[in-house]
Amino acid sequence: MATTIKDIARQAGVSAATVSKVLNRKDQFISEETREKIWSLVKELDYTPNSIARSLITRSSRVIGIIVPDILNAYFTELVRACDQAARERGYSTILCNSDSDPAKETSHLTFLASHGVDGIVLAASDLIPDARLLEKLRIPLVSMDREVPDLDCLAARIDTDYETGAYLSASHLIRNGHRRIAFVSGNPLASNTRIRRAGFERAHCEAGLPVDPDLIECGAFNHRFGLMATRTLLDRTRFTAMCCMSDMLAMGAMVGLREHGLSVPDDCAVMGFDNIYIAPLLVRPLSTIERRISEAGSLAIGAMIDFLDDPERPRRTVLMEPTVILRETT
Amino acid sequence: MATTIKDIARQAGVSAATVSKVLNRKDQFISEETREKIWSLVKELDYTPNSIARSLITRSSRVIGIIVPDILNAYFTELVRACDQAARERGYSTILCNSDSDPAKETSHLTFLASHGVDGIVLAASDLIPDARLLEKLRIPLVSMDREVPDLDCLAARIDTDYETGAYLSASHLIRNGHRRIAFVSGNPLASNTRIRRAGFERAHCEAGLPVDPDLIECGAFNHRFGLMATRTLLDRTRFTAMCCMSDMLAMGAMVGLREHGLSVPDDCAVMGFDNIYIAPLLVRPLSTIERRISEAGSLAIGAMIDFLDDPERPRRTVLMEPTVILRETT
DNA sequence: CTCACGCAGGTAAACGTTTACCTATCCATC
DNA sequence: GATGGATAGGTAAACGTTTACCTGCGTGAG
Q1: Domains in chain A, ordered, with CATH?
Q2: What residues contact A102, with CB distance under 8 A and at least 6 apart?
Q3: pTM
Q4: Chains A, B: CB contacts under 8 A, how many?
Q5: Which of A204, A211, A282, B17 would suit a FRET pair with A183, their CA atoms being 20 to 30 Å apart?
Q6: What is the pLDDT of residue B321?
């Protein structure tokens, strides 16, 4: 049986209310003597307040829920890590949920987090738009990252990356290097974060006076498995000298596919990634990529969330992060 | 304001107790009619029980805490993913904590998890032995993974890998391939999971009648940063034709170090990893390694935890997983 | 002497559930 | 016609906190 506030109160010869006041530093009207006695009992009995009981009454848990589509994708691992760290620095904790890009799971995580009384939810890029009705109903502050989300009044912030520019930079770099047939590999073709990247990819072609061959486009998912599959499909179907992958995980899969076909990177085929996950420089052939400052994004998300929790009236933030190019050895 | 059990009760014209009974399927003495009315109201009002209130009274949250030293290490990402999945399949959720191999953080996570009423804690490999007094006091079922932990009665299971054999297999493979000077890179030299691996490494040498040169040993941490640093140190200090890295992350760092020195893998220096993280085959030079079945380990951990929660009297399990060799292109 | 106020602390309700135990009705049995 | 066991459901306490409001007491001003 863990120590409760009542144990402290009894041993200190005061009421539970007094102990609570001291613990929460609302102790301006508590004598120095009582205060000291309480603190020393707290230490002695190793008392930790029961967060559950506290949450029940205060309706605040100082916990933030994070939903990502795939924690195995190193991008999200970094993001989650950054969120968690930022949260802890501000006295919050996080609960992680993995949706597998499955809307049903996402919905169930949303209700799970709600029933566990999280103070806010960070919803990271997933292919689909969440059930607006549910979000509306939960009334839990929400920070969306890199995804379309309806404009609810519980939307605390929106953290996005300028995908259009990122994809444009990636394609432009390859075009400048003389490539004329560039494959484009990205996630769910229906999701905005793929459509927008494709627009940037096409703009680069347009400005260079190059056509975009639909045979060079493969969209499906952002993981390495799809990167491999897409590369196999592309290699069977057509010819190209470079690949513009819209995530580093895709690029890693793509390089495996190229290797299978005996093609060397970057001599036979250049590869651009996107995200600059921490593994990118560790691949034995370090990956050229687009830097996205994952940690900063995670930190921003949590910061925005907590700011909103502190003061829901403050104007909503929407941050658009500018990507930059990192050149390594694959291009 | 979320719907509560009282809202349902009022609208159904029954007491909250009745609703609770129906919801928890303790409804043998509730009429079919009432039961249906309640369920339909639950659907209609989108009622989800408040887990906090429930936990408070039942003293069970159906949440399992997981503490890992470094979520960025792909090994732990996979482990956490597997734990989470296994937990969800059995109706539990997980809360993740990252200790950065810092005993102080680990302690604070332990009390955090306790105060949030988790039903159990999975403590994954970290360098140090946790504060036994604290564990003893928390009385929360514990599953330890790949680490030394005092023999408490709240220890539900211990999931370990046969590191001795793993390291032996790794070194033996390299010795069979004709290597005579093999570097050994591992984590914290004081931790048992490094000492044990070193024993296996030495046994392989012993059986082959080879000496172990202390100059070839570098122990520090299991991440890729230390892998890189250790490789630089080793290259400066001595000569070797192979590296026996005790984690894949170390191997990834090592390969970067070898590359810096213009050495090619495996021609100039062979590299063995340990863990078989999912990234290993994605490195452009796929990594030979020791397979550890991370997912199975995670799943076992959670299974053991929940079995223990279901029946604390059942005999404790200690599982020792046997590693196997996976040969790819780095050796 | 009264009043008001500052101080130190107590009282009890509340948060949303679960659950042990109680009540009331009905029907069959002796 | 009393007893008793199903059946259907209600009552209220409990979980561990927080917090609005109350109670004395002492003291200084009027």
Answers
A1: 1-47 (1.10.260.40), 163-291 (3.40.50.2300)
A2: none
A3: 0.84
A4: 121
A5: A282
A6: 59
